[in-house]
Amino acid sequence: MIINDKELTERALVLREKGTNRSRFFRGEVDKYTWVDLGSSYLPSDLLSAFLYAQLEARESIQQKPRRVWQRYYECLAQWAENNEVTMPVTPEGCEQGYHMFDILLPSAESRASLITQLKEQSILSVFHYTPLHLSEAGIRYSARATDCPLTEDVSERLLRLPFYNDLSEAEQDDVIGAVVNFRVRSFSRVAG
């Protein structure tokens, strides 16, 4: 369990233990445990755990294909991105890339929309990322107050995900790369800051 606020650790343990103070019981802090809060069974079944364990053991070989696709996009689009003020994915120092998608951050919402259209005309599906949570239906319904997140909204309007799946062939990826490289961003002005 990973918690970034130590004050929430005990509550997280209670939630994980189906709403009980069972963790305190195992630590000898109470003589019996009982329900004290909300909670549920968030643990995977033994069968799912076995599948996950096998995947973790084979992690390196499983990651080979998506790593190849990701690195090829990165290498082939880096110069185009630099020339067109497009931001490529960044993997912070000390972190590992998950290789589950490849996204680019275009300079404006208009340039993203135009690139999506150009790719679609070539039968290449590209999608924007997720709606910011504070603008989602549930975010609006459950938020205690109106939320203003201009940076999040700006990035959401400019982020574009390129086709990405393990069995993407080099020929298919060449089509995507060629279509992206032929797109000229400079004709669009940056609207949001």
Radius of gyration of CA atoms, rounded to a whole number: 22 Å
Largest sheet at a glance?
A: 3 strands, antiparallel
Structural class: mainly alpha
List unreliable stretches of 5+ residues.
none
Estimate the strand proportion: 5-15%
Total number of strands: 3
Determine the oligomeric state from the structure.
Answer: single chain
Please give the CATH class of the largest domain: Alpha Beta
Reading the helices and strands in chain order gives: HHHHEHEHHEH
Return the domain count: 2
CATH architecture of the largest domain: Alpha-Beta Complex
Distance between the termini: 37 Å
How large is the count of helical segments?
Answer: 8
CATH topology of the largest domain: Aspartate Aminotransferase, domain 1
Mean pLDDT, nearest integer? 89
The CATH homology group name of the largest domain: Aspartate Aminotransferase, domain 1
Shape designation: extended
Q: What would your notes on this structure say?
A:
The chain has 193 residues and is mainly alpha-helical. The protein folds into 2 domains: 7-43, no CATH class; 60-181, Aspartate Aminotransferase, domain 1 (Alpha-Beta Complex), CATH 3.90.1150.10. It has 8 helices and 3 strands, in the order H-H-H-H-E-H-E-H-H-E-H. The chain has helices spanning 9-16, 22-26, 46-57, 59-83, 109-121, 137-142, 150-158, 170-181; strands at residues 102-105, 127-128, 159-162. The protein has a 3-stranded antiparallel β-sheet. Helix 4 runs parallel beside helix 8. The chain is extended. The mean pLDDT is 89.
